[in-house]
Design brief:
This protein is α+β, with helices and mostly antiparallel strands. Helix 3 links the parallel strand 4 and strand 5. Helix 2 packs parallel to helix 3. It is globular, with a radius of gyration of 15 Å. The relative contact order is 0.19.
Length: 159
């Protein structure tokens, strides 16, 4: 039997380490999270995506009593950007997530479905999407590409 070793490299940042652009993106992600509709899970997520044309697209999770009908914040923003700015590239994504009852300190990465959606657009645009994610407070994890958090990506090359 052979084995492979897969490593992911992430940077751990504080708010002070962020560039001015990243701080603005973080604020927009927090604003988006405040608009989340999460009456069932009581777990709110907000995302802000910077496009190469300078536009920032926001998204928040939108739940539904029929759970599979809801949508995560990341996919709300990604699909909005894809539908409204089809020729623009997604440069940077900032995600913040936390339950209603406390300020989560642990960075929360995108779920598997959102990682797959990010992978599709990263492959489509042929440049990596920088992903920064955090809880409500505390450290911020930064990945230079989705491939760091989804190293065995399934994409169009497998079809």
């Amino acid at each position: 039997m052979k084995q492979i070793i897969i490593q992911s490299i992430l940077s751990i940042l504080s708010k002070q380490d962020l560039t001015l652009q990243e701080k603005e993106l973080m604020q927009q992600a927090f604003e988006a999270r405040s608009k989340a509709y999460a009456p069932y899970s009581k777990f709110t997520v907000g995302v802000a995506i910077l496009l190469d044309n300078g536009v920032v697209v926001q998204g928040s999770n939108q739940e539904n009593a029929a759970y599979p009908s809801g949508l995560c914040a990341e996919r709300v923003a990604i699909y909005y950007a894809g539908a409204n700015y089809p020729t623009s590239k997604m440069v940077k994504m900032f995600i913040t997530a936390s339950p209603h009852d406390r300020n989560l300190q642990e960075p929360i990465p995108p779920c598997g479905s959102c990682r797959q959606a990010i992978a599709e657009y990263e492959m489509k645009q042929d440049i990596p999407i920088e992903i920064l994610f955090m809880g409500a407070e505390g450290p911020i994890y930064k990945s230079d590409s989705l491939k760091n958090i989804l190293p065995l990506v399934f994409d169009k090359n497998h079809l």
